[in-house]
Amino acid sequence: MAVRRFDQVELALLQEVLDSGTLSGIAGGKFTGQFEEAFAEAVGARHAVAMNSAMSVLHGAVMAAGAGAGDEVLCDPVCVFGAVAVMYNNAIPVFVDIDPVTWNMRPELIEEHITERTKAIIVTHVWGLPAEMDRITEIAEKRDLVVIEDCAHSLFATYKGKQTGTWGDIGSFSFQMSKQLALGDGGMAVTDDEELAKALALNAGAPTFKAVAHDLHWNYRMTEQTAAIGLVQLERARGYVEELIEIGGLYDAAVEGFPFVSLQRGPEEAVHTFHLWGATFRGETVGLSPDDLKRALQEENCKLGVGYTNMPAYKHPVIAQRLGYGKGCPLDCPLYGGSGNEYPDGLCPEAEYVLPRIMAASTFGPREFHEGNAERLRRALERVG
Question: Using one digit for the tens of pLDDT, what is the confidence trace for 57-81?
Fold first, then answer.
């Protein structure tokens, strides 16, 4: 049963934090460091840096990659968060289209988007399905680019036996409440590079930073309370993930035999950990629209979303309306002289096609609910098919 459990074990550690009178790692608390060490070991990385959110980690990663005013960072167009993190640092997000089945960045399209301004690539493992990281890192190494993996959805997911977050230079994990390791909020950066770890730690308010402002950095520190809960939940998270994979299988079985539904799946070497279960509704092949599916789902009381955001990242108002810091920044920063800041219709045709057709089911919750919901999904597809 994929139900998060919080109990006396967490309470005991929280009481220890309170009894210590030290609620911050920078003031001598011990739990943040312990959580960092345990998480690094769990995913197979040398270093981990805890922060207050995954957005903070992504921002810190863009900074550590050296991307700023006048620079470009390649992003995928399904999830907007990487692009926003790029804009935080006054750099330009440049979008690389996705594979229509996996919804992940297509490696074969990357090189045509690289310019002399490109500093990094942010790769999202959408909904827990790993991207083809061997191909992506090979390109990045050849072009001297930093690879940032957005693993917000993909805790313990593996590609060719190696965990997501450890293929590139920096991995970013989310502990927001909907994720496999849920702490209310929080994030973790992982890296094998000691210098990158130091750069990331400056934005986490590391003790080595002390009171001396050497550069512009942010205070994204995780609290001792969050880290204490994280130590316990990390031990339980693998069990959660195993249950999520089983629940994903229930929905796989529900859509079997409907040729107008294609599962979100990658190569055999990619182990999906199902932050969400997903598929693409290709109803136009049989004369159906997404609205037809939505009506059938409502009639069957099936709890499944259709359309996700319905738009690629570059159609979100923050990008489409060129919002930001004012005076043209970040998207029209006067220090930028490239054309990567142009986002016309049709920029990423596969993403524009897929996003309104995404079928999405939450995977946490009692197995009995998902068994019934999967059956309701099958009945809804029978209605339209």
Answer: 999 999 999 999 999 999 999 999 9
Q: Tell me the β-bridge partners of 123.
A: 149
pLDDT less than 70: residues of the chain = 1, 206-212
Predicted local distance difference test score (pLDDT) of residue 152 = 98
Q: Which residue has the tokens 């996700």?
A: 308
> Distances in Å between the alpha carbon of 270 and those of 22, 165, 264, 274?
42, 13, 11, 12
Rounded Cα distance between 35 and 28, Å, is 14
- Structural fold of domain 238-308+350-384: Aspartate Aminotransferase, domain 1 (3.90.1150)
What one-character-per-residue DSSP string does 36-49 give? HHHHHHHHT-SEEE
Is 8-234 a CATH 3.90.360.10 domain?
no
pTM: 0.96
- Sheet-wide strand order for 276-281: 261-263, 276-281, 358-362, 305-306
Nearest to 201, CA basis, from 83, 321, 384, 57: 57
